[in-house]
Amino acid sequence: MPKIANESDVRYKRRVIDVKSATFCAAKWYNATIWLGSGQTTSCHHPLPHQVSVEQVIANPKALHNTPEKKEQRRQMQQGERPAGCEYCWKIEDMYKDPKYAGMDVPEPISDRVYKTVIYEDKDLDEAFNTPPEQDINLQTLEIAFDRTCQFACSYCNPAFSSAWVRDIHRNGGYTNLVSDGRNHFTHEHGSSQLYTINDVNPYVEAFFKWWESDLHKTLKELRITGGEPLMSGYTWRLIDWFQTNKGKSKTRLAINSNLGFEQDKLERLLDATEGIELDIYTSNESIGRHAVYIRDGLDWDQWCGNVTYLLDSGRLRGLHVMCTINALCLLSLDEFLWMIVKLKQKYGKDAINFSLNILRFPSFQSPLVLPIEIRENIVEKLQMFGNASREIMHEYEINQLGRLMGYLIEVDSPHSGALSKEILQRDFKNFYDQYDQRRGKDFRYTFPQLTEWYDSL
Asked: Which of 415, 453, 455, 413 shows the shortest CA–CA distance to 436?
């Protein structure tokens, strides 16, 4: 087993990870996210993606994961060096070490590299650490996106991951006067994120299926399909058909990242098509009611809640996982949202539904750190009350993520290295949401009256 019974995350880190190197993370070897529409990959959702060579994947499908960049990062971690792209974890680990103000009894901040490592067997971690960095490694967990087709256009997303965002930019042009958006998330349609049309042969997709059918289905423990919205992609159903046609051939668990923005018949089709397959559903939300509808444009709140209940009632899932993207606006009702999750845990069981708190860094003007410190302090008080009251029904990683979020809101000043001043980020915050309201028919002041006075002062 990856962890000894009752072993804390901190003790696990010290026993298994620290004895290898101060920077080891198994994700660099055994985990990947691959966007097949653009031919890009990364080791987890924190480092920026990089391009995969078409020529290399045609010659060797395993090059979808084993890129020169990742091999260099493996070498760095074996030497105890910090790969620059993993800044998110380094920022968490360098944060204030004893957040007594949070009242959560967390002895030290636990970064995501611990959670990305603990899921693998100790013997596999030893093998990874001792394998020459230039050698190809077979994945154990993989997240893939076939394309960016999506019916949502969430405020913190962008055209690289949503066709609905593409339509916004195509119809209204790019957003303007966003000084801090150095990556130009909102200025153009991001055509490079979808290199191939529906009528084209996509060499990255073909390389994936070639790798999958040859040996990837033998080594992969979990395959997670994301998007866009993966249930809108024909490739997703092609893969599900493979599982049905080859029952018993693969022990890979299947996971779907879905916004759950569908009528229930779509979910019925999914559950029917995956009968006999271990299935997890990952979905996103981080606030309630009109807050959620504002942030996640395209969301029907009642439909989302109904679909969550439907999936839990079905008894078909291995787990339902709610990924909370912690942005500035969600903080106003994050505690209420987490209370809702806890009530579902109480009804369906501690393991039936869980949550993760993923702190948004890009676009930096939507970071929770743009809010005034007095608002953040008030939010931390509410989260502390929630944490203290709900501790018994939360998992250790949920407790730790809650604790580190509270520490982050108080102790961290900048979303990432190189971020512009808070004044500039706040100005961009207002510039963005003024345009967002106009394009989407929304009303910031009506939705977030608690922020109106501050918003109008920017």
From this structure: 455
Show the domain range for 84: 9-141
Note whether 75 and 168 are same-domain residues.
Answer: no
Both 55 and 152 in a single domain? no
Q: Which of 141, 167, 185 is the last residue of a domain?
A: 141
304 and 324, same domain (yes or no):
yes
- Token digits for 367? 């970071």
- What is the mean pLDDT, run by run of 10 residues, along the chain of 458 residues? 82 95 98 97 93 97 98 98 94 66 58 95 97 97 97 97 98 96 91 92 97 96 97 96 93 97 96 94 98 98 98 97 98 98 98 97 94 97 97 96 94 83 96 98 98 98
Same domain, 106 and 181: no
* Single pTM value for the model: 0.91
Residues 330 and 423 in one domain: yes
